[in-house]
Every structure is written in C-alpha cells, then in structure tokens.
Target: SUKH-4 immunity protein
Amino acid sequence: MEFLRSSAHRVPFDRGLVGDRLSQEIERVYGRPHEDFVRLLEGVQSRYGGLTYDSGFFQGPVQFSPVCEPEDAEDELEILYALETGSPAGGSVKADGQVEIGIDGAGVVEFPDLDTFIECDAMFDAAGRLPVEDRFHLDRSGLARAVSRLSEAADEDLQPVPIAGGAHCYWFQSPSVMAFVCGTWSELGGALSPFVQVWGESTSQLGRCRRLLA
Model:
C-alpha cells in the first residue's frame, strides 16, 4: 500500500511467546492448543509487527506490537497491543481477526481486520492534503442520520468508501470533498459524542456539508 510505503516505518518489538512455546502455554491455560490462533498471531506479527506511523484515527502515533499473553482461562484469547498509542486508547485483534478498539477498559469491535484499519488511516492521509477542514459534533442520535444524508448526497457526488470504514465509522469521498463520520468513541461511553470531519477545496464546500447535516 502506498500509504505505508510513504508514511510508515518498522521498529523492533517484543514478539513474546510464539510457535510451539505459545501453543503449549495456551494449552496449559485454556485446556487445548488453539493452533489456528497461533497461526493468526504469526501472520499478524509477520505482516504488521513493528509498523509505526501517525494515525488519523487515533490522532497520534500508533505502533503495531501484536503479542499473546495467556494467563487466565477467564480472559478471552486475543492478540494484545496490536495497536499501541502511548495513551489509554488502543486496539486488539480477536481470534477471528476482527479489531477491537478500546479505551480505559471498554472496547468495541470496529474493523473486520487490520487492513481495513490501515485503509481508514490512509484516507486521513489523503484528506489531509486538501486545503480546508472542519469538524463538528453530533448528538448521540445523530450518527445514523448523518450517514444517511451523506449517502444520499448525490448533488455533492459523495460516495461511501466501505473498504476504509468500520462498524461505527464511515468514509465518504468525492473528487474535491472527503468526510469522516465517527461514532466509535461514543460507543465506549463517557462524555464523547459522535463527530464529523470534512475536508475540501474551499470553505463553501464545507459549508454545504454542514447545511446538509444540520
């Protein structure tokens, strides 16, 4: 992916237990070896391990440090630290490959895989090249309405970009406007609300998006 070639680099990371040693430890804790999970971890570490770049989704640096630390059979078997940010926010990978975004102990399954998360960040990178930007918050019931109105915005020529979206976040793009609608963080509780970010060639374009979503 061009985004990774131009924006990311790799750093060393601790792989932890891998291969037969991990299989034995998982079997000790969970009662069986879970070979499919071991292969998933190996694939994730090989493909993504050590990648780091500035993430638009997390609004700061992210590092891919996937590891498995089986300790308690009551805990879900998952790949931890898949997305590290140096803050309470981050991401793990479930046994089926889906990505859970979490903060302060709360989590929501957001992306079908890490490739989709990276596509989401690639859209932020492309949007950042447009000259003007606006961001505004929605009430908690406004997320579905905003997605619906942007989906129907034929006059703006906005098209959804599902390859870069998640369960609660959505990208839309036209030749001169890009829009990101996000309810991920509001799903995690607290005072966070859904929001929309819009980038464009002119302030008048952003004004039209605001009016569309008003």
